[in-house]
Amino acid sequence: MGFLKKKRWQRRHLMEAFMKFIMQVSLVFVAGALGLILWIIVVRGLPALSWDMVTKIPEGGYYMGKGGGILNAILGSLYLASGGTLLAMLFSIPIAMYLKTYLGDSKWGRYVRLSLDVLWGIPSIVYGAFGFTLMIALGIRASLLAGILVLALIELPIMTRAMDEVIRRMPVDLEHAALALGSTKFEVALRVVTRQMLPGITTAILLGFGRGIGDAASVLFTAGYTDRIPTSLMRPTASLPLAVFFQLGSPYPEVQQRGYAAALILTVIVLAVSLGSRWLSARLNKYTIK
Amino acid sequence: MDAHIQVKNLNVHYGKQQALKNINIDIPKNQITVIMGPSGCGKTTLLKTFNRFLELTDGTQITGEVLLDGQNIYDRDVDVTEVRKVVGLLAQRPSPLPMSIYDNIAYGMHIHKMKRDRKEYKAAVRHYLEIAGLWEEVHKRLHDPATSLSIGQQQRLCLARGLAVEPEIILGDEPTSALDPISSQNIESRLLDLKDQYTTVIVTHTLRQAKRLADYVIYMYLGEVIEAGPAKEVFSNPQHERTKAYLEGQI
Fold first, then answer.
1. Under CATH, what is the fold of the domain A74-239?
2. ipTM above 0.95, yes or no
3. What is the mean pLDDT of residues B56-85?
4. How far is A235 from chain B (nearest CA, A)?
5. pTM score, two decimals?
6. Residue ranges covered by each domain of chain B
């Protein structure tokens, strides 16, 4: 009989067991690292988290341990990342559509993708420095607007390439079905591709948002930092990553703790946006062709 | 013969390989023409020259003319979207659009701005679903995703969707090959019902289907048209040795 268990010790079965083990180990490693980060943020940040923290701006002496909160940074980050994401969407959706619809895998298409990949890899401090140089040249001071512009620049390549990869997986039959009815390529892109690929496009936008809201170096130069809530696009604004950075650098333990609390708030915001958009794309998913 | 489509000196190359060799045929108006032949003989390639679908594949070279009512669709100033509106396609596998049953039918009418208001769209959607024999089955769930239908129903939906843009010609690229026997029969009888109003061109690899549907037959072999003529004549008295061999099941 060929069903005996000794077959389990054949080389190919051992190979499979070994490979599966390696995959599991790497999974545990990654999950463990994530868990550890969350654990540290929660353990150190949670005690400092209070209602004041999320509803008040810093009071006098806040950075030496006195009262107040980081509402300025929370709102600042939300403004910065939302503005940056909206602006990046405005450009990345058309670019991704153009890549898919008209450039395809042509020489120009490959060139554009390469450029975007290079832009993706540039460290955000370079974007910050670039933005800063530009601001000096134009005579603009550190402001919410400058921060939004630089974040949009940082998010653009990520968003575009993520969308591009998603849209490239568009089933060709579906496109042909729409073309066969006499659609223009643009109508196919607008009415069919976006509908079919909406969940993926949402994920791409989310990736951009995540990078934007978590970035410290670029907003350091361009948005500045202030204890006030920004009232106009031309005013400087605080942001959560910088709130974490400044407070962790403080010699006072209670202020350091607030740094962890700020990190916790940032994580919760990213998680909430993430879950929210998943829920949304699951609802929009109804008509997608599997 | 009242020719609706005339093909003149048509040659198609995929890269260096020649897929169609000097095709010259006429396709009669408001009849069912069946293109048959062994696989790889260029049937589908020929069909796809009629709605300019070949140019969607990179590296395809097309020379010669395809005339619809005397107008060459490969002329420079021809709008390809208008060609495809006039020449509908029923693909091998049904491919519903990522939207509701209703919107699948309305899509084509929308992009061509064919109706004035919601009421007209609604009436038209119903009309074409009825023609495709699908209305009874779906009228209570018009806003469900099109993918909730069975494969056979999806193919009838695709037929209704194609008819909704008011074409004059229906192309079928082995339109029943993915379907079960009952659904296939259903599609075949729709095509027979519609043949007085539309010029229909079907590619098939099943001889039986060809015999059931065809008024006019084109037999192809290795990129060439070997024989073309009224179905009765070709089936009962093929002029060419190769056609005879095919009909007798030797190829």
1. MetI-like fold (1.10.3720)
2. no
3. 91
4. 45
5. 0.81
6. 3-247
